[in-house]
Amino acid sequence: MVGPIRYVSDDDDSGRWDGFPFREGDIVISTRSKSGTTWMQMICALLVFRSPSLPAPLPALSPWLDHAIEPVADVVARLEAQQHRRFIKTHTPLDGIPIDDRATYVVVARHPLDMAVSLYHQSDNINRERMAELTGKPVTVRGPRQSLHDWLLAWTQKETTALEQPDSLVGVLHHVADARARTATANVVLVHYADLLADLDGSMRALADRLALPVPEDVWPSLVEAATFGHMRRRSEELTPNPLGVLRDGSKFFREGRSGAGREVLTSQELLAYDRRVASLADPDLVRWLHR
Q: 37, 27, 22, 50: which is closest to 211 by C-alpha?
């Protein structure tokens, strides 16, 4: 049997999943960057602990296993010590990590243009010197910063592969298509970012059912409120994934969190070119679902 594909970037490595000791009930949260990762981690934390008050900062409760800023053995040891139902973060597509029958895999998808706008702004907030210090790799040398419009336009048309650049348009579509193809199995759940925005209560209830995490009805309102974007922004110090200082300013991690920002950047003709590009890369049903 062919094993998982190995995805490697400047700061993460899916090979760190090799030999991971899964446990019955594990939840693996798999998303592309800036597609609702921390939001889904928070939702899972609220469902697991049934309280808006968490016993530890979110990055400690839900480590990013692939992130190469600390030894993988240390991350696994912390996960092994956890007594609660575990929920683990990854930006790796499901074809790059072990699929274990004991775990449930939750994949969050977002409109690619909105994801890309958030990625553009997030890039300015990364402390690349600190990242290089932690990973032992050279500091990434960046040229002059393009405008958001020019960068986004180039992003929509870039020729690459999901393996080379998972956060490219090609990579985004691959990540979601791979997950969608697996949803026929009971342990893969595909969630749309727009559904979380439109009906957070209903989306959380549906996820609680899929994860078999019953929550007393009188607790629900406080959990839904704690999962709103505004509430999470106010708790950014506790929730932002910045335990080792890889972000310049953790308070800027939660920027806007809305839908539609990407389409506002491009002209009508550029949006048509984007639509043609997406149509050449993905199944029409997937495109309709992703863009709704």
A: 27
Q: How many CB atoms lie within 10 A of CB 169?
A: 23
Range of lowest pLDDT (119-123, 203-207, 262-266, 288-292): 119-123
pLDDT digits (tens, 9 = 90+) for 104-157: 999 999 999 999 998 887 766 565 665 556 566 676 666 667 899 999 999 999
Q: Establish if 168 belongs to a structural domain.
A: yes
- Residue 198 maps to a domain: yes
Question: pTM score > 0.85 for this model?
Answer: yes
**Coil, strand or helix at 22:** coil
Instruction: State the Cα–Cα distance between residues 2 and 68, nearest whole angstrom.
Output: 24
Burial of 228 (0-12, 13-18, 19+ CB in 10 A): middle
SS3 state of residue 28: strand
Active site (catalytic) residues: 91
Residue 148: Cβ-neighbour burial (10 angstroms; 0-12, 13-18, 19+): middle
CATH number at residue 155: 3.40.50.300
Closest to 275 measured CA to CA, from 138, 111, 65: 111
CB atoms within 10 A of CB 264: 9
Count of domains forming the chain: 1
Res 227: pLDDT:
95
Does residue 41 register a pLDDT over 90?
A: yes
- 4 found inside a domain: no
- Looking only at the bridges linking them, the beta strands covering 188-192 and 27-31 are unpaired
- Residue 135: its pLDDT value, please? 65
Alpha-carbon separation of residue 174 from 145, 151, 169, 231 (angstroms): 27, 21, 9, 32
Show the domain range for 45.
Answer: 14-291
